[in-house]
User: What shape does this take?
Amino acid sequence: MNRRAFILGLAGLGGAAWAGGRWWPDDKWQNPCLSGLPETLANHPLIRAAWEDLNPEKVWDMHVHVAGTGDSGSGMAINPAMDSLSSPVLYVQKRVFMDAACVGERSKVDETYLARLLDLAGGFPPGVKLMLYAMEHFHAPGGKQDEFHTGVYVPNDYVRKLAQTWPQRFEWVASLHPYRDDAVQRLEQYVKEGAIAVKWLPSAMGIDPASPRCDAFYDALVRHDIPLIVHAGTELSVVGEGHEQDHNNPLRLRRTLENGVRVVAAHCASLGMDYDWDAGSKPDKLPSFELFARLMDEPHGANLYADLSAVPQLHRCHVFPALLENAGWHGRLLNGSDYPLPGIQPIYLLKELVRKDLLAAEHAEVLNELRAYNPLLFDFVLKRSIRWQGTGFPVGSFETRTFFQPATKAKSGGDKAGANKQKERAST
Ligand SMILES: [Zn+2]
Assistant: This one.
């Protein structure tokens, strides 16, 4: 892809108003897609320090996307608009994501994506795992599957198979639409088959988390002690006709929390503005992050967690100081990468993090070298290196296995124990 198309794509992603020198990329526009890691880099004190105090067995990257065109028979699909020049933003977006994942355009897209992901995972110590996301279709309000409005489809069956084939590296996060007649039944089946969480992207799937139609699904999540990971704040990656941005409003998760579900708000709702529905019928818009913060501090917020995926991006990183200053939230922040996004070099602008006093300039240099080889490891070491007035994210934010697979559950498969604990948490 040429540079002009790439820049247009970034503009389409909404992230890079790049024209001024301040937001010019640190290094390259495109992903160099190198592999392995030179000795000097692998043994660099910054990278070694990233593993201090961490047990790799507990380090799970809790936000990793699987993608492809379905050319391997995987069942994955992308909306035809992404290959049509009549939808230029979607067209270029797809190519930007493919560049981030080091996938060429012609053939073997599914296989190449997976091979690169396994290669990058191999750059981590044994024990470290990636939580891979399925992505359910858009559904109409009546609960019917709607392919026309579906941006990206990644079948549960495919992701389950990946987790079963590489259990030492992958876990499966199911995606399931709550309006389906068989939603509860399917959830139960997926839990038996090893799904450890459910992921929703409300605008792209046609889900209103505040709808009573979700209640039966919420009850089932609580019964099985399965966390729900929900995109929160403005969505830019999977957009299309009929997608309601307000479905991603953090306030819509209040009902989910009141039902006792353990919720993970993706990206800490760090992007965009949403209506403050608490202010009455004609509300103003406030930063989504502010609404998320309100929810975090409410009594039911004890069940609200948030992930750090994508937060280092130049249009989101302004929330780092608030996240790091608020010690009361630290036990509820979980690390994930949002792979393949860390492979989009211009939106991870290290010099902006340095300018904001969040990253030491000498660390930025090492990280810049690292991302050319392994964007997944880059994202991890970057999060470990971020500091605000001397404070970094706690060890617990990186040992996310403890949240997704509590010891009680791992030993006994104890759904009931988990559900009781969850109800207790919800009623505090
Ligand atoms: Zn994501």
Notes: The pocket of zinc ion is lined by residues 63, 65, 338 (CB under 6 Å). The chain has one domain: 3-427. Residues 3-427 form a domain with the TIM Barrel fold (CATH 3.20.20.140). The two ends are 53 Å apart (CA to CA).
